[in-house]
Amino acid sequence: MHRSPHSTRRRFLGLAGGAAVLGAVPIVTVQPAKATPEMLASAIRNATNGATVKTGKVKLDVPPLVENGNTVPLTVSVNHPMAPEDHVTSIHIFNEKNPQPNVANFQLGPHSGRAQVSTRIRMADSQQIVAIARLSDGSFWSASVDVVVTLAACTEEAI
Hints:
alpha+beta; Immunoglobulin-like; six-stranded mixed sheet; three-stranded antiparallel sheet; 2 helices; 9 strands
């Protein structure tokens, strides 16, 4: 098979031009966002408008050991009536090591029937999950659970 001199020259010039362009483009390294305890505290302050959060009334059901962080089931229930004059108005879920720690917000009312929500979240590492409920009287109640993740969700590589 005979190649014409033009195809070899074109190929060389194309590769050389590509290398020159790559040399002119600055290399930018993107670092993943890091979560801090201050970010979690700030997210909780934002959700509660700085109000005092008491421990109790809230039950957070999440497995303490999770094999795969891609889909972690959790249920938050609040031991409180759901009457028109006295009910749970919202439930917030926070994830300690997430750069955006307020991962879920649920609005409830007396017609919700019971103060319970279930969802699934992703977790990239072992960490604390916090659930906070706001009652119609303006008080906030919380529960937290430490969860161990053996296979992280956000850092898995495709096979």
